[in-house]
Structures are given as C-alpha cells and as structure tokens.
Write a structure and sequence with these properties.
Blueprint lengths: L22 H8 L3 H4 L24 H6 L3 H15 L13 H10 L8 H10 L6 H16 L3 H7 L3 H13 L16 H19 L16 H25 L3 H28 L4 H8 L7 E3 L7 E4 L7 H21 L6 E3 L25 H6 L3 H7 L15 H5 L6 H13 L7 H31 L4
Parallel strand pairs: 2-3
Antiparallel strand pairs: 1-2
C-alpha cells in the first residue's frame, strides 16, 4: 500500500491530511527507537470501584507494616485466622454466619450481661488445656485438611505444634462457639465480632510467645502492642477477607476465577523475566529485550492434569509472529540448559498440545505498545483495523526477516546493532511487508474523532440547559 504515513497516537484526533507520505518517512517511522517511542509500563486506567463492601479505614498499608517491622507478624496473624476459619487456600471463601449461630451467641452473651469479653477470653486461654473432645476433633480436621493441601498456607499449617492447635480450638469451644466465624458484613464493634477478635488475638499471642510461629519470623516485640495486632487483624479480616466474601456473594465462583487468572498471569510474568534476562545477558538489542519484559507478549499456559513430571499446555497467541515465538522458545531452552549446569531449579516444562489448546480463556486482548512486527504481516494487513494499526505504527521493528535468523552466525550480525544500523541493513526490508494506514484513512479518523468531541460538547450543553431549567415553573 502506498502513501505510508507517520503519526503519533496523540495526534489521532487532530492530525492534518496534508502531512507528507513518502517511502523515506515510512523508513523513519519504522526505525524509531522502541525504547523511546514505546512508553514502558503504560497501562489501562484503573478506576476506583464503588461499593466494594470493605470497611473504611481498616486497610493497613504495606509501608506502615514494614516500618513497624511487622511483616512476619502480619503473615502469622493471617495464618492464625485461616487456621481458625479452616481456610487453607488463597481462594477459600469465609463462611457466612448462620442465624442459629447468632441466636446461640445472643443467648449466651446478652447485652444486659456486664461481661468483660477481653478478661473472659484471657481466662479461657490461660486455662485452655487440657483440650476437650470437641477441640481435639477440630484439630484432627485441621491437620487432615492441611495434609491434603498443596499451597504455602497448608505447608505452614503442617508446621504447627499440635498442642498449639489444641489451645486455639479449646478456647473457641470453651467460649461457647461451634466454630470461629466472624460476621464480615456486620459491624466490627458488635459483641459477636469483638469476641472473635479477642479469641484470635489472645490465642495468637499465647502461641507466638511459645515460639509457635518462629517459622513465620514473628517479631516478638510486636506482641507487646495490642494496638498493632488489632490493626493487623482488622486489615486482614475486615478488608481482605470481607472483600473476598463480597465478591463471592455477588457472583458465585468469582474468587476462584480471579485467583486462577492471577496464577496464570504470574506464570507469564516469570516467563517474561526468564526470557528477557537471557536476551539481556546475550547482548540482544534493547528494543527486543524491552518487548520480552512485557508479560503480555508471552503465551499463557495451563497445567496438564494427571501427568508426571508436571507439564504445561501452551495456549495460542493469535496474531503473534512465529519468528518472535521461535526466539522466545530458543531462550527457554538456553535458560533451562543454564539451570541444569548451575544446579538450580529448572524452568517449568511447557509444550504445545496436539490438537491445539486454542487461545487463552484468561487474557484475550493484544498487548499494548509492542513493535509492528510483534504481529505477522498477514495478521497486521488483514485483521487489524486502521485504528488498531495507529496504536502500533510508530513502535518500530525489532527482528529481521526469517532468513537472517536460521543460525547463530546470522543472528550475531544483527542482534546488537543500533536502531539506525539495524533498520538500514535489516529492518526496512521487514517493514515493507506491513501495510500502514494511508493519509486518507488517518484524515478520516481525525474527522470522526472531532465529530465525537463535538457531540460530547453538545450533550454537555444540553445537560446544562436541563439543569438550569429544572427549577423554573
């Protein structure tokens, strides 16, 4: 396509149709340094959601936790609460409080009773042993679930001394509770929730002072500050866990889906780190390293069930260049060989299944700010819209034609070149395969954007007229 056009994203709404369009400009655009034309780390806008269900003011910032040297203590309190709840996975849902449970509590702790809950629980903790039959059954249940669990929470629970678990659950039983279950949607200051908080913190202090959480690196000085422990508890229970309960209440299975999505993305982040590190260590062009650093440029994968040792099926990445994919897979192989020689833990084994696994069900959008040749020429020319092309057309070329990638000798000739040298010797030949938006297409986009802006102004004026006339008779 003739009439290739240089344009920036910002100029889409006001670009001029009279700008020159020549072969030399196409080359200039394609040779633009990806490290400058692609803003690293650009992300989508993150609006603040409304009505999250979180209790205002209970979130404790990471900096505050770190400043108080309470990171280990925070982790231990979270584990302590999960043990009492019986929740041993990140996506476990805290149970709701049953009406019968609340009725039984109200019968035991009437508002008319002058009960010092704090003193009452401290007395129960001091006299919690020996454990009763109910507590022993709860301990066995916890140990069984932890044994069957696979994550870090289950592993940390298995490290707990049985006598410490007995103290926890006997205190719960002697407090008259069938189970420990705070009312996440009720007021934190209610008698019911105060009782649960006191049980959690008093038993936590007792276990921690007995070195039950040494493996969690608890700062024992933190145990002297009940105010700090209270803030850590409230942040976890009334911020983090309440949000999990709210999400699940609004959409069943949502928490599990979000957790799986996070796991898949974390695997992709690890993959990006490994590949970009290899390319960096081998002296590849900075534009290519920057592309590899973007997790969205890599494929998702999923654990293949009932296969040992573990293997992961690779999902397709629609539109991505097979040449780029081949380079990434080569980097995987080299990284794995390096790990074997170094005696460190090797990368996961990933493979393309037959038949194909298809596109990822988790992340379907194209990555932002990738170079032009992230896409295959056919996909760019036939699938992307003009507006989509405008988003990428200034992002440069990072790889030569396939003929220059078949051997280490041929790769060595281009992998460390400057942007200008690379484009002159290799990049412009690759760029010629991609059809860029024409001047007419870009001018039409600009006109459409201006029309949209005018429509928005008209709507605003109509809204103002409606407001000014709403108070008149």
């Amino acid at each position: 396509m003739s009439g290739k056009h240089s344009s920036s994203k910002r100029r889409r709404s006001n670009s001029s149709a009279n700008e020159p369009s020549s072969r030399s400009q196409k080359e200039s655009r394609g040779s633009g340094s990806a490290s400058t034309s692609r803003s690293k780390g650009k992300g989508k806008g993150k609006g603040k959601g409304k009505g999250t269900g979180k209790k205002k003011g209970y979130r404790m910032a990471k900096k505050e936790v770190k400043d108080k040297q309470a990171t280990g203590t925070q982790g231990a309190i979270r584990l302590h609460c999960r043990i009492m709840w019986g929740l041993f996975a990140q996506n476990s849902i805290p149970p709701p409080v049953l009406p019968a449970t609340m009725a039984a509590f109200n019968a035991r702790f009437s508002r008319d009773d002058d009960v010092d809950i704090s003193a009452h629980i401290e007395d129960l903790v001091e006299n919690a042993m020996p454990a009763g039959e109910k507590a022993l059954a709860a301990v066995v249940d916890v140990q069984t679930k932890a044994l069957l669990g696979r994550g870090q929470i289950a592993l940390d629970t298995r490290r707990m001394e049985e006598t410490h678990l007995q103290l926890i659950f006997n205190t719960i039983a002697r407090a008259g509770l069938d189970r420990w279950a705070p009312d996440l949607f009720g007021p934190p200051e209610s008698s019911y929730n105060v009782l649960h908080k006191q049980i959690a913190l008093s038993t936590f202090q007792s276990v921690a002072k007995s070195f039950g959480y040494t493996h969690m690196k608890v700062n024992l000085n933190n145990l002297l500050s009940f105010n700090l422990l209270s803030k850590l508890y409230d942040s976890f229970v009334y911020n983090y866990m309440t949000e999990i309960a709210r999400k699940e209440a609004t959409s069943q299975g949502r928490v599990g889906r979000e957790q799986m999505k996070a796991v898949v993305r974390n695997r992709r982040v690890t993959l990006a780190d490994s590949r970009s590190q290899y390319l960096r260590n081998q002296g590849y062009r900075s534009e290519l390293v920057q592309l590899a650093e973007d997790p969205d440029a890599h494929s998702d994968d999923e654990l293949i069930p009932n296969v040992s040792p573990a293997k992961y099926a690779i999902y397709d990445k629609p539109g991505r260049s097979s040449l780029l994919c081949g380079l990434f897979r080569y980097a995987d192989g080299q990284a794995k060989s390096h790990d074997q020689r170094s005696g460190v833990r090797e990368m996961r084994t990933r493979e393309e299944p037959n038949p194909s696994a298809g596109p990822s069900p988790w992340f379907k959008r194209h990555p932002e700010n990738v170079p032009i040749d992230y896409f295959t020429p056919d996909y760019w020319n036939q699938e992307l819209t003009v507006r989509e092309k405008v988003e990428y057309m200034n992002n440069g070329i990072v790889l030569p034609l396939e003929a220059h990638c078949h051997s280490l000798d041929s790769i060595t000739k281009w992998k460390s070149l400057s942007t200008d040298e690379f484009m002159k010797k290799f990049g412009n030949d690759k760029l010629a395969l991609y059809n860029m938006p024409t001047e007419d297409e870009l001018a039409r986009l600009a006109e459409m954007d201006e029309e949209d802006e005018e429509d928005e102004v008209d709507e605003d004026l109509m809204d103002e007229d409606d407001e000014s006339g709403s108070g008149s008779d």
